[in-house]
Amino acid sequence: MVEALLLIGLVVAVFVGFNIGGSSTGVSFGPAVGSGILSKTGAAALMSVFALAGGWTVGRNVIETMGGEIVPASSFTLVASVGVLFFVGLALLVSNTFGVPASTSMTAVGAIAGLGAATGTLNADVMLRIVGWWLVAPVVAFWICAVVGRYLYPYLDAAFAIDRSAGGVLVVDGGRPRVAPDATGREVAGTVAVLAIACYMAFSAGASNAANAVAPLVGNGALTAGQGVLLAGGAIAVGAFTIARRTLDTVGNDLTDLPLLAALIVEVVSASLITFLSYIGIPASLAVSATMCIVGLGWGRATRTTTIGDAVGGALAGDDDRERPEVSVNALAAESPSPDDGVPRMGEERGEELLAEDLFDPGTTGRVVSFWILTPTISFVCSYVLFAFTPV
Prior knowledge:
Elements: H1 2-34, H2 40-56, H3 59-68, H4 78-97, H5 104-119, H6 124-160, E1 170-173, E2 176-179, H7 185-219, H8 225-241, H9 244-254, H10 260-279, H11 286-302, H12 308-317, H13 351-354, H14 362-389
Helix pairs in contact: 1-2, 1-4, 1-7, 1-8, 1-9, 2-7, 2-8, 3-7, 4-5, 4-7, 4-14, 5-7, 5-14, 6-10, 6-11, 7-8, 7-10, 10-11
C-alpha cells in the first residue's frame, strides 16, 4: 500500500513539474522567442538546463520552507502529499490549457495552506512572512523599473538600440554556426544579452519552482532534496518541450510588443528579485514580478513629459487648467531617438511621442491577471475541502 501511494505521489509530482515547465518557459524565454532570436525547441533545451541548475543550488532553501515550515513536515503524509500535489497540478493544468503563465509558487503555497487550515497546523507567522513578500516584491519591481524608465531608459535606448538584420545573427556554414556577414556588432551583443538573461530567468524560475513539485515528498522523507530536484528538473524539461509552446506564444507574441532593451531590463530586475527571495526561502511569483516590471518601466518612461518641479509647482498652485502629463505604459513602444539626435531632457518629450503604439494587449493582460488570482484560489479551496471533510 505504501509503495503504491509513493508511486502515485511520484507520478503527481511529475505532473506538477510538467505543468511548471509549461508555464515558466513562456515567462523566461517569451521575449527571446517572440523577437525571433531563439526557436521554441532551443528555448525548451535551455530552460531544462538552467531550471535544473537553479533548483539544485538556491532552490533547496525554498524546498525547506515549503516542506516543513508552512505546515509541520509530519503533516505531509503520503496521502496528504498526493492531495496537495494533485491540486497544484490541476490548477496549473487549467492555466496552461488557456495558454497563460500561472503563478506556480502562489498555487503551491495555496494548496499547502489549505492543508494547514483544514488540519489546524498552519504556521501563521511563516504565511504572513510569505504573503508580506508577495505584496512587497511587486512594489519593489515596479519602482525599480519606474526609476530606470524615467531617468535611464532613453539614454540606454539611444546607446544600445538593437537593429535586427533581415537574415538573422547566425548562419550555418559547413554544418557549423557562425555570425552572419551582415550582422552588426550591436545586434550580436544584443542577441547574446537576450539569451544570457533569458537563461538567468530560467535559473531563477527553477530556484523558485522546483519546490512546488516535490516539497511535500521531501518533507515527509520519501525523497531527499537532491532526488526531488532531479525529479522536478526532469519533469520541467518535459513540459518545456511540449505544452510550453502555447505560453511561449502568449508571452512572446500576444501579451506585449516589448522592445528588446525593455525586455532585458524587465528580465534582469524580475529574475534578481526572485533569486533573492529564493535565497531567503520565500516561494514567489516570477510572472507577477515581471509584469510589474513592465508596467513600472512604461510608467516611468511616460512621466518624462514633465519634471518633478513642474508637477509639484502646479499641484501647489492648484491650477486645474495646467497641462497634465500623459502617463501610460504605452510609452515603451514609442519611437526611439536616434543616437545622433541625443535624448530630450526631462519635460521636453511630448506625450504623443510616448503613446505611439500599444505596449500590451489589455484583453490578454486581464486574462493573465485573472488566472493569477484564480489558480491559487482553486488549489486552496480544493485542498481545504478535501482535508477538512474527508478522513484522509
